[in-house]
Amino acid sequence: MGKIRKITSLIFLLLYIGYYVSVSFFFHSHEYAWGTVTHSHPFPSSTNTHTTETLQLIDNLTNTFVMGIAVAFILTVFSKLKAIVYNFYKRFSLNSLIGCSSLRAPPVYI
C-alpha cells in the first residue's frame, strides 16, 4: 500500500507542476464578440486562433484538472482526519479507561 501511495503522490505532484507551468507561461487573451477569453499554452504559438470547440475543450480540461486536484486534496484531508479520530478513540475508549476488554456484565447476586 505504501508503494502505491508514493507513486500516486508523485503522479499528482507531476500533474500539478505541469498544470502550474502550463497556466503560468505564455498566457494571453482573445477578444470575441461574446466576451474575452484568457488562457495559456505550454508553448508559444505564432498562429493563435481558436474555434469555439477548442475553447470549450480548454475549459473542460481545466475544470477536470482543478476538480481532480480538489478531490485529491479532500481525500487527503479526510484520511488524515480519520487517522486522528481513530487515534483519539483508541486512546480514550471505554476499554482503555477501564483496563479490560470484556463485554460480559458483572455477576449479580440476589
Summarize the structure.
With 110 residues, this protein is mainly alpha-helical.
Molecular structure report:
By secondary structure, this protein is mainly alpha-helical. It has one domain (2-97). The chain contains 3 helices and 2 strands, in the order H-E-E-H-H. The chain has helices at residues 2-24, 52-92, 94-98, and strands at 27-32, 35-40. It has a two-stranded antiparallel sheet with strand order 1-2. A hairpin with a 2-residue loop joins strand 1 and strand 2 (35-40). The chain is elongated and about 95 Å long. The termini are far apart.
| Main beta-sheet annotation | 2 strands, antiparallel
Structural class: mainly alpha
Stretches where pLDDT falls below 50 for ≥5 residues? none
Provide mean pLDDT, rounded. Answer: 77
Order of the strands making up the biggest sheet: 1-2
- Element string (H = helix, E = strand): HEEHH
Global shape: elongated
Number of domains: 1
Query: Approximately what portion of the residues adopt beta-strand conformation?
Result: 5-15%
The rounded Rg comes to 26 Å
What percentage of residues falls in helices of 4 or more residues? 55-70%
Put simply, the count of helices is: 3
Total strand segments: 2
End-to-end gap: 55 Å
